[in-house]
Structure formats: C-alpha cells, structure tokens
Amino acid sequence: MRILLQLTYNGANFQGFQIQNEGRTVQYELERILKRMHRDFVRIHPSSRTDKGVHALCQYVHFDTHLNLTADKWQHAFNSALPDDIYVTAVRQIPEDFHSRYHCIGKAYRYKIYQAPYRDVMKTGIETYYPHDLNLELMNEAAQAFLGTHDFTSFCSAKTEIENKERTIYSFQVDKTKDGYDFHVIGSGFLYNMVRIMVQHLMDIGQGKKNAADIPAIIAARDRTAAGKTAPAEGLYLEKIYLTVEELAQDIPPGTKIITKNNRKALTTDPGML
C-alpha cells in the first residue's frame, strides 16, 4: 500500500530536505525510522526538496509499505521517534498511482523579514533581519511583473540542473506585518533559489536600488547575473502544496488559468478522501 505523510519542519539545523554526503537532512530522519520499522530500506518521495535552512509549514511525502497500520499508529510511530524540529501532522492511505511530486500542481512560499534597530537573536534561523526602509507600494507593483508563464533562468541559481526553466506565477503579494514584511508567492513550481532571488530583487526595488520597470527585460535576458543577489534561506517557508485544482483555485485570483501537464496530473478530489 502507499502512504502519504503531511509534515512540518524547522529547517534551521538541516542541510536541506534531500540526503547529503554529510549533515542532517529531513529525508534521512524519515527514512531512518522506516528502515527500523521494515528492517529494510524504504525510499520516500517528497513534493518538494527544500534547500538548506528553508522551513516547511506543509510538505508531503509518500512511500510504499507492506505494513498494515492505521493512520494514528503511523503518526505515532513517526512522531515518537522524530527529532523536535520535524512533526508529522497527518497520515493517509492513497492509491498506488498517486505520486506526491507529480500530482503537485502548485506551491505557495512565504518569505519573512523583520526590521528592528538591531538583530533579534531569538529570530535567528527563522526570519531574515533587514533593517533598511522599504517602499511597500513599489514592491507590490514590481511583483506583478513576475506573474504569468516565463523562463526564469535569470531568477534561479546558476547551479540549477533542470533544462526546462519555464514556470507560471499565479500571484505575488507583499504585506506589511507588525515588525516587517511578508512576501507571499504562489506558482506552478519553483526553481533552485528562485523565490529567494525574486524576493531579494523586490527588496532592492523597495530600497530604491533597482527599477521595477527593468524586470521584464531581466526575465527576457535569461541571464542569472542580471537579477542580483539571493536572499538568505532562513526567512523562507514552504507554506502550502496544492494537490487539487479546487484547492489552488481558492488561493489565486478568480479566473486565473491553472497550468497542468501530463506528468503533473492534478487530482480531482481531496487526497484526504481517497
């Protein structure tokens, strides 16, 4: 049978989701528990592979098993053995043709910055300190230039190995918070460092260091050096994974066309009801 886990984690002390040659990873912690339970290696498959220092409020992974456990027992087995910075929030059985990556039709990320006279050590690793004055109206105006389907070569890491760098951005909004700003973006998918590069570019615009009108030309250039620096990882949160068209449609502007492809077939029902 195939099992789907919904989980959350604080990425501050992880080298990322995916197993690395050294250092802690979320994947290792989950597979360690599965190996102990099955007495054999069991591979997990995530909806997203977050980078070093990036957090997840909602992440999905699936795996195949011969063990016949209830959802409650699976959840207890994981949470009783996982470290304090990972928690499984839900478990469900799913059809064997469901894939947590290929059924993902969209993702939402939130980037959090705070402003203060000095760095707050209690926020180290969970929000980014950015003390400079920012123009909210300019940043929101600039964010709209990212909407639609584009080749985001200019706004992803030069180390990105994926050849197809075309992605669709459905919404991008900057909000003023009590002590800083939140950058909230929803898209069909995101490339390596893409959100962090776009956020840093918007902050540079909000600070008056860059011009919002230049974004279309930067996108068209398909040149990583044209976009500028990358924001730190600590402020980035994978906020939501969309597995159904209905769920995604609720969070984006009405009438927005949702992009689905054959290798990213969308579910038509809530996975919790499968």
UniProtKB/TrEMBL annotation:
<dbReference type="Pfam" id="PF01416">
    <property type="entry name" value="PseudoU_synth_1"/>
</dbReference>
<keyword id="KW-0819">tRNA processing</keyword>
<feature type="active site" description="Nucleophile">
    <location>
        <position position="51"/>
    </location>
</feature>
<dbReference type="GO" id="GO:0160147">
    <property type="term" value="F:tRNA pseudouridine(38-40) synthase activity"/>
</dbReference>
<dbReference type="InterPro" id="IPR020097">
    <property type="entry name" value="PsdUridine_synth_TruA_a/b_dom"/>
</dbReference>
<dbReference type="GO" id="GO:0003723">
    <property type="term" value="F:RNA binding"/>
</dbReference>
<feature type="domain" description="Pseudouridine synthase I TruA alpha/beta">
    <location>
        <begin position="9"/>
        <end position="102"/>
    </location>
</feature>
<keyword id="KW-0413">Isomerase</keyword>
<feature type="binding site">
    <location>
        <position position="109"/>
    </location>
    <ligand>
        <name>substrate</name>
    </ligand>
</feature>
<dbReference type="InterPro" id="IPR020103">
    <property type="entry name" value="PsdUridine_synth_cat_dom_sf"/>
</dbReference>
<feature type="domain" description="Pseudouridine synthase I TruA alpha/beta">
    <location>
        <begin position="142"/>
        <end position="240"/>
    </location>
</feature>
<comment type="function">
    <text>Formation of pseudouridine at positions 38, 39 and 40 in the anticodon stem and loop of transfer RNAs.</text>
</comment>
<comment type="subunit">
    <text>Homodimer.</text>
</comment>
<protein>
    <recommendedName>
        <fullName>tRNA pseudouridine synthase A</fullName>
        <ecNumber>5.4.99.12</ecNumber>
    </recommendedName>
</protein>
<comment type="similarity">
    <text>Belongs to the tRNA pseudouridine synthase TruA family.</text>
</comment>
<dbReference type="InterPro" id="IPR020095">
    <property type="entry name" value="PsdUridine_synth_TruA_C"/>
</dbReference>
<dbReference type="GO" id="GO:0031119">
    <property type="term" value="P:tRNA pseudouridine synthesis"/>
</dbReference>
<dbReference type="InterPro" id="IPR001406">
    <property type="entry name" value="PsdUridine_synth_TruA"/>
</dbReference>
<dbReference type="InterPro" id="IPR020094">
    <property type="entry name" value="TruA/RsuA/RluB/E/F_N"/>
</dbReference>
